[in-house]
Amino acid sequence: MAAWIQRNKFSVILGVVVLVLAYIYYFSDKTTALSMYRYAWTYAVPLVLCALVGVIGERSGVVNIGIEGQLLVSAFAGFFGAAYSGSLIVGILSGVGCGLILGGFLAWTTVKWRMDQIIAGVVLNIVATGITSFYYKPGQLLPALMPHWSIPGLSSIPLIGEVFFKGTGVIALIAIIAVFGIHFGLFKTTWGLRTRAIGEYPSAADTAGINVITMRLVNVTLAGALAGLAGVFLSMDSTSSFERGMSAGRGFLALAIMIFGAWRPLRAAAAALFFGFVTAAASQLQADQVINVPPQLVGTLPYVLTLVVLAVAAGRVRAPGAVGQPFVKEGK
Amino acid sequence: MKAKRYLVAGAATALALGLTACGGSTGSTGSGSSASGAASDDSNCADAAVFCIGLVTDTGKVDDKSFNQASHEGAKAAAAADGGFYKYVETQDAKDYAANMAQFTNKKYDVVVTVGFLMTDATAEAAAGSPDTKFIGVDQFFDPATVTAKNLTGIQYPEDQAGYGAGYLAGLMTKTNKIGQVLGLEIPPVQKFAKGYEAGAKAANPAVQVTTVYHPAGDNAFNDPTWGAAEAKKQLDQGADFIFGAGGNTGNGALQEVAKATGAGDTVFCIGVDTDQWDTVPAAQKCLITSATKELSKSVTDTIAVANKGDFEGLTTMGSAGLAPFHDFDSKIPADVKTKVEKVVSDLKSGALETGVTL
Amino acid sequence: MSVTPEPPPTTAPTKAPNPPEEPSGAGLFSLILRRQSIVVILVALLGSALIGAALIRYQGVSPWYAYQTIFKEALLVDGGLTRTLLKTAPLILTGLAVVIPLRVGLFNIGGQGQFVISAAVAGVTAYAARGAGFGALIIGLLVGVLVGAMWASIAALLKTWRGVHEVITTIMLNNIAAGIIWWMVTTGPGAFKNTSQIPMTGPIDKAAWMPTIAGIPLGFVIAAALAILCGWMLSRTTMGFRFDTVGKNKFAAGYAGIPINRVILLSMVLAGGLAGLAGAMEVHGVMHHFEPAIGGTLGFDGITIALLARSNPIWTIPAAFLVGILRTGAAGLQFATGIAPEIVDLILAITLLLVSIPVLGRWIFRSRADKVQAAATSWGN
């Protein structure tokens, strides 16, 4: 524990400072603070899930810029699956299923067929937009609302419990578990070690007996399930309708968050919360008419900050070494 | 192995060709709909006896739950009432407005409805170029100083009055003295609704606090229900008990969020916009106390009827704006509130009351 | 993705095992097999047309009639060809904006942002210069080129200076551009208060409109000329040779003394300038003012076009023309058959998928799979 703190000194200090400030604000103006934190978390849920998709992909050596498409198709499939079948479960499953299928498509084309990863992602996005807007049907309703619970015990913790565990939906909970689970998985398990190996130095990993191709296929495909959940969150949890293009660039924003979070799940989640809070603060300023920042410019903030981070911290923030390159086994 | 591949390819091609071939020679399942006994296609639109109505959307779709859909329904109703033929084209690219209107004028349609203020300039130009066709611009204002054509009229709606009425109702009924609005892009029609809402609320209840938030992006400002929902939730958390969602799907997201909140329909309420959203956003029925409406469908139908009979009265046709029925909430709203709101709405219509909204 | 200080170790094993084959390396397109590529493209186009036909049939309309309508609307109807060419012009340029960096091994998906920001600034400038008559056209176009080049050079500089991957930066820049242009026309500079209330910049003078001569838009002529010029530049000049060398093998290029960073910067500046010119041309030639809707999906269509053209500048002309035909015909299609115009997006998406899927080429030319690999950008180099 002490060693871990030593290694992550900067993150720990920053985390503690942020937490203390958050609590100070919370106790000084409970209602407003809480509403803003909850906003930040709602804003962050799909982004966290999508950023995890990106992290898993890139850690395995596959760039996924098709997250936006996965998100859109899953939102579409989730909503219409639920609306036509009359069952939320069917909706969630079809959303997640579509995420998996598209993840599988990306994996298969890029890993097996060695299609360019960027092109595969672009294709995915364009196909997703085309299909969902062409086959959209208005006037459908979800059979029921997604259930929301308060986790007993946890939900009574001031601030943290109230934000994350009070009246929370199943997808938001999965997002929390996924962040910690994947962080642990990546850095503490054999799977994680292998995943990082095939993303950093696939030929060495291959020599060590890791099946690079299979591992990349499995990782990228399974990560699609998270994108599927994020899509379901958009059309079934945070709202209760599907609209054309409702992903509204969140898949791309997730890429920014992934980089901002230095390809690490916990930091990516923190980055998503940070951008969520910035957005909340901007709308709060607008609402209170403190200063009228043009909202369009505030909307560009995450992207500008990502560019700044990349420019300033380029040396420290480093992508996995073999990201974007197809792996060809020697002598085959 | 190789032979098998080509076999598969051949079979696929044959299948596809077969699909292609069995379609018949005309694609007759057009978007056109017509009343029984009326013209079934648009080949005779030039004929004085055949009344043809065309509609061009701005870059939205006719199922947008908002003004495109309402106008589309209005035009369809007009076609049914007058025994006319109706067809629409959805514009994908703002540069195609002129070409899409030309589709109709080339076929000598009698009336072309263009929807949305984004088409104002294109409509004026098309009207000047096709004097035999009458143009109706929904939500459009033609400046008499520059537009001289007689074959067009723009339907204008006093959005501020609708917003004022909704705000007045919210101001009277709020228990927390906090109300909010979740809006799309900061453009005049939305601003008019928003400022009217604020003015109405303040007029009813000087102590009321109005939270106004516009969407922070350009491209998706009217199509981000997730943002609308999150924003509505934030305002609810801060104690607002009335949320006005005005901004296409973004606003609809806000309405749906309010419908999910605890106390929806009892202590917290939502107000829709443009059309009676009781019908267009059924997911919001639980909280939807009313909608600040522009009577789009009715005004389109009426104006088409005017065009069918003769000339337009002028460059501007005033449509009306007001409040949608209260539906299930009719019994929940106190009688004195209802009378007050009704008086305000009718005073606004008659001109006895001004909203005082300026942009 | 952001920084790769070491040469990637994985490129070495990409040697093809069969002696008659050339190693494909991390290079871009295998230009040697251009003819095979054309076959692949034609098969892909045919395939997507057939899938499109099935989709149209499924909507209850005869595909034959539908395709006929599209082509009739786009080419034969009075003024149809002019409209198609008007649509083709910016598509050629946004296609080139993808092609040129692709030859250097960069994937510029920022065409959309470069396009809209240039269009916005050009629109504002041309409106400000509205007394200048024809001069405003020249000023507007120049400003468009400059702004586009500057916008793209942000990505290029971050790439050369910090090693940040251009796909990420161009995605970010697209979103930033979208925010800026909306701000410009709503509350920012350039917002033009008009009676129609459209968020737009002021209308430019008629004298500064880009003319259409004998049914051929000047913009199309310029765009086609630039495509040919780029083709010439890439295949016949030292600069073109440098571009291709850097794209094929950065390390060899470095040993040969080619200033790689300058080549990268130049390619992105050219790309941005072309996309920017497209933006300014749309302002002067089509809209006559700027409004955010001007962008449409032009920047992203550029990617489809670049891949259809197999990153050959001259082939962007027919590729853009094809996309132009589909986009022009879409509205007529809805008028005639009632099929939503999104069908065209779907057909284009399928085309892109088939064109870029390497397995199609491998399937046709089984033994030479690697050569017809759709594309391999030098991601991470």
From TrEMBL, chain A:
**Organism superkingdom:** Bacteria
Keyword Transmembrane helix annotated: yes
Sequence intervals crossing the membrane:
12-28, 40-57, 69-86, 92-111, 118-136, 163-186, 217-235, 247-263, 268-285, 297-315
The entry's keywords: Cell membrane, Membrane, Transmembrane, Transmembrane helix
Q: Which organism is it from?
A: Phycicoccus elongatus Lp2
Q: GO terms for CC?
A: plasma membrane
Answer whether the UniProt record assigns the keyword Cell inner membrane to this protein: no
Q: What is this protein called?
A: ABC transporter, permease protein
Which coarse location class describes where this protein primarily resides? membrane
One Pfam family in the UniProt entry: BPD_transp_2
* Bilayer topology term: Multi-pass membrane protein
* Cellular localisation: Cell membrane
Q: Which GO terms describe its molecular function?
A: transmembrane transporter activity
UniProtKB/TrEMBL annotation, chain B:
Q: Which residues form the signal peptide?
A: 1-21
| Membrane topology, record value | Lipid-anchor
| Limits of the ABC transporter substrate-binding protein PnrA-like domain | 56-314
Which Pfam families does the annotation name?
A: Bmp (PF02608)
Quote the cellular component terms of the Gene Ontology held in the record.
plasma membrane
Keywords attached to this entry: Cell membrane, Lipoprotein, Membrane, Signal
Q: What is its main location?
A: membrane
Subcellular compartments: Cell membrane
Q: Does the keyword Ribosomal protein apply?
A: no
Family in the record: Belongs to the BMP lipoprotein family.
This protein is called: Basic membrane lipoprotein
The beginning of the lineage is:
Bacteria, Bacillati, Actinomycetota, Actinomycetes, Micrococcales
From TrEMBL, chain C:
Record keyword Cell membrane present:
yes
Where does it live in the cell? Cell membrane
One MF annotation (Gene Ontology) recorded for this entry? transmembrane transporter activity
- Listed GO cellular component terms? plasma membrane
Does the keyword Membrane feature in the UniProt annotation? yes
Q: Which InterPro entries match?
A: ABC_transp_permease
Check the record and name the CDD domains matching this protein.
Answer: TM_PBP1_transp_TpRbsC_like (cd06580)
Q: Where is this region: Disordered?
A: 1-22
Keyword field: Cell membrane, Membrane, Transmembrane, Transmembrane helix
Give the record's membrane topology.
Answer: Multi-pass membrane protein
Q: Where are the transmembrane segments?
A: 38-58, 88-106, 113-130, 136-158, 170-192, 212-234, 263-281, 293-309, 321-340, 346-365
Q: Which Pfam families match?
A: BPD_transp_2 (PF02653)
Source domain of life? Bacteria
Tell me what this protein is called: Sugar ABC transporter, permease protein
